[in-house]
Design goal:
Number of helices of chain A: 16
Shape of chain A: globular
Structural class of chain B: alpha/beta
Largest sheet of chain B: 6 strands, mixed
Oligomer: heterodimer
Helix content of chain B: 25-40%
Number of strands of chain A: 0
Strand order of the largest sheet of chain B: 6-7-8-3-9-10
Structural class of chain A: mainly alpha
Number of strands of chain B: 10
Largest sheet of chain A: none
Radius of gyration of chain A: 24 Å
Shape of chain B: globular
Order of helices and strands of chain A: HHHHHHHHHHHHHHHH
Chain lengths: ~375, ~230
C-alpha cells in the first residue's frame, strides 16, 4: 500500500519524544510502585515525610512531562500524517480512484504505531539502565529503607504496549478524516493549496509576502518551533536549579532531555519547511533571489515564535518549580527557597540566540545546494 | 549578443555517462527570437539551461557581450540572472500560496518595478489578480508565469516548452501573448520546443539532435500564433 514500514522510520522525531516521555515516566512510576510496596517499612516521621514528598514528586513529574510530551507527540503524529497525505496525494488519489476505501488506505497508517513502539521500548529499557543509580540518589540520606528495582509488568503494558496501540488507532482515525476528500483534489494536489487573501492593499514586498505565506501555510510548525525553544529554555534553566532542589543527576537528565527534544523538534520543523518549499526556493533562485533572501522568506517568519517559546519556557519552569517548592514540598524540611535565577536565564538566552541563529544561518546556506535542475526536469 | 562556443555537457557516471551537449556553438543577436527545435533527448533543454546560467557546462564557453558565464561563481551567476534573465517553464511553477498579483511581484520586485499591474493586464488577468493558482486554468497559470517573467523587465527571456501542457486554443493564445510582448518590448527570446509548427513564429530556427546543432535556418516567412498549424 502507500505507507510502508520504511516510512515509520522517518518518524524518528515521534520515537525520540516517546522515548523521553517513557524514560522519565517509567523511572518515576517504577520508583513510585516500588516505594509504595515498601510503605509498611516506614515508621518514623522523617522517613514518612520524605516518602510522601517522593510520591508526590513522582506524580507531578509523570503528569507534567508525560502529559506534555504525549500531547506534543500526538500533534507531531497529526502533522506527519497530514504532511504525508499532502506529499503523496497523487498516489493516494489513484488508489481512491481505483476504488480503495478511505479506511482501507488509512489502515496503512497504523504502521506509524511502530515508531511509537520503538521509542517507548527504547525509553523503557534505558530507564532500567539508570534506575539503580536513581533509586540510590532518591534515598542518599538513608531515611528510607533499601528499595530494590523491580520489574513492574503493568508499567510495560501502560507505557509501551498501550501507547503503541493507541497511537496506531489515532493514526488510522486521523488519516480517515484527512482522506475524506474528493479523489480529484488528491490527484491534482489541491489539498495542499489553500491560499487566503487578506483585506486591504498589499504593500509588503515579495519576500515579506512569501514569509507570511510560508508561515500561514504550515501553522503546525509554529507550534513545534515554540515547543522546541520552550524545551530548551525550560529544561536547561530547570536543570541548573535541580542541583540545589533535587540532585546533580536529575539536573543532567533534565538538561539532556531538554536539549534532545529541542534539537529534534527544531530539526524536523526546519527540514520540513525547507523541503516543502524546495520548488519555491529553486524558482526564486532561478529568478535571481540570493540565498539570504530565500532564507528570509522561508525561515525568518518563525523567529518570533522561537523567542516567544523561550519566554514561555522561562515562565513555565519558574512557575513549576515555585509551585513544587512552595506548595508540593511546603511541609518538607530541608527544601531550599527557590527564586527566579536571572543569571542562568540570561546565559541560557545567550546560548539560545547563538545556537538558533547559527542553525538558521547554516540552513540558509544549505538552500544553495537545492539543485535548480530539479525543478526544470519535472 | 549571446555567444556559445563549443559547449559540452555530460550526465551520469561510468557506463551510463552520456554526452548531452556535443560542441554546441551559436551566436544570438540582441532582440532576436530563436526557437530551438528537437525531439526528446536531443539536448535542447540542457542547452537552454546552460546558456541561461542555470547549469554549468563541462566544456566550452557562454558569453553575454563581454561577460563569460562559465567564469562566474554561484553568487555572480545569481546576480547575473537577477539583472538579465527571466524564465517560463512548461509546468508554470507558480507559488501556490500566493495570489496572481503576489506571484507577479516575485519578478517585479527584482527590478523594483512598481508598475507590475500592467503586465497582469497585458496577459488579460486583471479581474483575476486576487485569485490563487489553484483557482486558475492551465492557460491562465501560464499567463501568470509570463507576467511574472516580464515584470522583471528581462533582457533575455528563456522559455522551455511554454505551451507543452496546454491545449491548442490555450496554447495559441499564450504563444500570441508572448510574441506580442516580445515585439513590443524587444527583449531577446530563446524558446525550446518539440513542436515544429511553433518554430514558424521565430526569427531563426535551430534544430538539435543528439546534443548537436544539425541545422540553423533563418525564418523569412515568420508567422503569427494564429497562422500556424498545431
Amino acid at each position: 500500500m502507500v505507507v510502508s514500514i520504511k516510512d515509520s522510520v522517518k518518524l524518528f522525531g515521534i520515537s525520540i519524544m516517546a522515548c523521553c516521555a517513557v524514560f522519565v515516566c517509567n523511572m518515576f512510576l517504577n520508583y513510585y510502585l516500588d516505594l509504595t510496596a515498601a510503605a509498611d517499612l516506614i515508621n518514623d516521621f522523617r522517613a514518612q515525610s520524605l516518602y510522601d514528598a517522593q510520591l508526590m514528586t513522582s506524580k507531578v513529574v509523570c503528569s507534567v512531562s508525560g502529559g506534555c510530551l504525549a500531547i506534543t507527540t500526538i500533534a507531531m503524529l497529526f502533522f506527519y500524517i497530514k504532511h504525508y497525505i499532502d506529499s503523496h496525494s497523487k498516489e493516494i488519489g489513484i488508489l481512491k480512484a481505483l476504488g480503495y476505501s478511505d479506511l482501507k488506505i488509512a489502515k496503512g497508517f497504523s504502521v506509524f504505531g511502530l515508531s511509537v513502539f520503538t521509542g517507548c521500548l527504547a525509553g523503557y529499557l534505558m530507564s532500567f539502565l539508570i534506575m539503580p543509580a536513581f533509586y540510590e540518589k532518591q534515598n542518599d540520606k538513608g531515611y528510607l529503607p533499601d528499595i530494590p528495582v523491580n520489574f513492574n509488568f503493568i508499567l510495560f503494558v501502560l507505557l509501551v504496549i498501550l501507547p503503541s496501540m493507541l497511537f496506531a488507532l489515532i493514526a488510522v482515525g486521523y488519516s480517515v478524516r484527512k482522506l475524506n476528500q474528493p479523489c480529484v483534489n488528491l490527484l491534482k494536489g489541491l489539498a495542499k493549496v489553500k491560499g487566503k487573501n487578506r483585506s486591504g492593499k498589499d504593500k509588503k514586498d515579495f519576500v515579506a509576502e512569501m514569509r507570511s505565506s510560508v508561515l500561514r501555510s504550515r501553522k503546525t510548525l509554529v507550534f513545534f518551533i515554540i515547543f522546541s525553544s520552550f524545551c530548551f529554555s525550560a529544561m536547561v534553566q530547570m536543570s541548573a536549579s535541580m542541583k540545589d532542589l533535587s540532585s546533580e543527576m536529575m539536573g543532567i537528565m533534565t538538561f539532556v532531555i531538554g536539549v534532545v527534544l529541542a534539537f529534534t523538534t527544531l530539526y524536523i520543523s526546519t527540514t520540513t519547511v525547507i523541503r516543502s518549499n524546495q520548488k519555491n526556493i529553486a524558482m526564486m533562485r532561478v529568478y535571481g533571489y540570493s540565498s539570504a533572501e530565500c532564507k528570509r522568506s522561508v525561515l525568518d517568519g518563525y523567529r518570533p515564535a522561537a523567542y516567544i517559546g523561550f519566554v514561555i519556557g522561562s515562565v513555565y519552569q519558574y512557575a513549576l518549580l515555585k509551585i513544587a517548592v512552595d506548595v508540593v514540598f511546603a511541609g518538607v524540611k530541608g527544601v531550599p527557597e527557590y527564586n527566579f535565577d536571572f543569571p542562568v536565564c540570561f546565559i541560557t538566552l545567550a546560548v539560545f540566540i547563538v545556537v538558533y541563529e547559527g542553525i538558521m544561518f547554516a540552513y540558509g546556506k544549505s538552500m544553495k545546494r537545492i539543485p535548480l535542475k530539479q525543478i526544470m526536469s519535472e | 549578443m549571446i555567444e556559445s562556443n563549443n559547449l559540452t555537457k555530460y550526465y551520469g557516471n561510468g557506463e551510463s555517462r552520456f554526452k548531452a551537449l556535443d560542441g554546441v556553438s551559436i551566436s544570438i543577436k540582441n532582440g532576436e527570437f530563436i526557437v530551438i527545435l528537437g525531439a526528446s533527448g536531443s539536448g535542447k533543454s540542457t542547452f537552454l539551461n546552460v546558456i541561461s546560467g542555470l547549469e554549468k557546462s563541462d566544456g566550452g564557453t557562454v558569453a553575454y557581450d563581454d561577460r563569460q558565464l562559465n567564469k562566474m561563481n554561484e553568487k555572480e551567476l545569481t546576480k547575473f540572472r537577477r539583472d538579465n534573465t527571466a524564465y517560463i517553464f512548461q509546468q508554470y511553477y507558480l507559488l501556490p500560496h500566493l495570489n496572481v498579483e503576489k506571484n507577479v511581484r516575485m519578478g517585479a520586485d527584482l527590478d523594483k518595478n512598481k508598475d507590475y499591474l500592467k503586465f497582469i493586464e497585458a496577459v488579460g488577468l486583471s479581474e483575476k489578480r486576487k485569485k490563487f493558482p489553484s483557482e486558475l486554468s492551465g492557460g491562465e497559470q501560464q499567463r501568470v508565469a509570463i507576467a511574472r517573467a516580464l515584470a522583471k523587465n528581462p533582457k533575455v527571456l528563456f522559455l522551455d516548452e511554454p505551451t507543452g501542457a496546454l491545449d491548442e486554443n490555450t496554447g495559441r493564445q499564450v504563444l500570441d501573448y508572448i510574441i506580442k510582448l516580445h515585439e513590443k518590448q524587444g527583449f531577446t527570446m530563446i524558446m525550446v520546443t518539440h513542436n515544429s509548427n511553433i518554430a514558424e513564429t521565430a526569427d531563426r530556427i535551430i534544430k538539435m539532435n543528439s546534443g548537436k546543432i544539425v541545422s540553423v535556418k533563418e525564418n523569412a516567412s515568420k508567422k503569427a500564433a494564429y497562422e500556424i498549424g498545431w
